[in-house]
Design a protein that fits this description.
This protein is an alpha+beta fold. It folds into 2 domains: 88 residues, Roll (Ubiquitin-like (UB roll)); 241 residues, Creatine Kinase, Chain A, domain 2. The protein is 27% helix and 22% strand. It is built from 10 helices and 13 strands. The strands form 2 sheets. Strands 6, 7, 8, 9, 10, 11, 12 and 13 form an 8-stranded mixed beta sheet that branches. A 5-stranded mixed beta sheet has the order 2-1-5-4-3, with helices on one face. Helix 2 runs parallel beside helix 10 and helix 3 crosses helix 4. The chain is globular and about 60 Å long. The structure holds adenosine-5'-diphosphate and manganese (II) ion (MN) (3 copies). One manganese (II) ion binds next to strand 6.
Length: 368
Amino acid sequence: MFSGNGSRGYTAYTDKNVLNHYLTLDLPDDHFMCEYIWIDGTGEGIRSKCKTIDFPINSAEDCPVWNYDGSSTYQAEGSNSDMYLHPCAMFNDPFRRGNNKLVLCDVYKCNKEPAESNKRWTCAKVMEAAKGSCPWFGIEQEYTLLDFDGYPFGWPKNGFPGPQGPYYCGVGANKVYGRDVVEAHYRACLNAGVKIAGCNAEVMPGQWEYQVGPCEGISIGDHLWISRYLLHRVAEDFGITATLDPKPVEGDWNGAGAHCNYSTIQMREKGGLKYIEDAIEKLSKNHNKHIIAYDPHQGKDNERRLTGLHETSDIHDFSAGIANRGASIRIPRQVAELGYGYLEDRRPSSNCDPYSVAEVIVQTTVLD
Ligand code: ADP
Ligand code: MN
Ligand code: MN
Ligand code: MN
């Protein structure tokens, strides 16, 4: 029997040393490989394909519109399956390097209307309407590494690790699993031009977090989606996977969220706490609307996570508090002491669409 990657039994393994020969071949220096990246019909899956561009490109606007087969991405019927890719943000490619690029696209149907999975379109309109408030976002992306067999990475195959406690921000081979992926991903983000703010090991072993931000307006979605692409792509190189499932293991194990830290220019200035409190008052009146926007299944995913246990609030209740990690909205202690800063919405699920999250927060707190 083949056992690909030695004792691990991962059969799709290829030898990266063989690849190295091809990575050092000379390529024409006026041709660029552009990886077009988009969100599929699930609202959480990421797809990409590559295009050679043989003219100078300085931004996403210079990249041509392209298309793909939407019947293979849960986005169209086979009889009329062309979908359009409109480039909207460009990043460096940390895998191919040089002048090669990652090109984030939003998706349009053949009738030129945005695809159902295209949450960027309405988000961009809301951000344009609210740009005078200079909304900033910082999202804490939690995720779980899985071995090739779908089991959490580093967990014993015939049981469970010891109870939660020693793992959060831990160090040591018995405390954290998969740091190579985390380190490689952090560097790939910086190289690509993604505004990664930090990272840490999480409460459940094999679970990690990184933060993106602060980013103004629509760019939070662009940067977070590219950071997720980089995460999956880096993990692929290591032969393991990253899941954004909000509750990957049932029981006494923390789930995964995407806390959204948010401020407007008024909140960030002296006396801003009053504006933070006003925003919380508005958020309290729109709890259900926000829950529907905070995961790709209108709250169904978050139902498994927002139980009121494991540092979460109950999905059915709205609450807010200073330094309270069991509340829907937390005002960080330092913000309360300074009297200005930002609020943290702890409700978004790890697999949320950041465009939807940012849109509804600005809609509720600035535009309504
Ligand atoms: P936590 O204490 O909840 O773990 P983190 O340090 O993980 O918080 O994340 C805080 C996030 O808040 C970072 O992404 C940071 O960029 C973001 N942030 C900081 N200041 C602001 C602000 N004024 N407005 C919006 N986001 C902010
Ligand atoms: Mn955090
Ligand atoms: Mn966290
Ligand atoms: Mn947080």
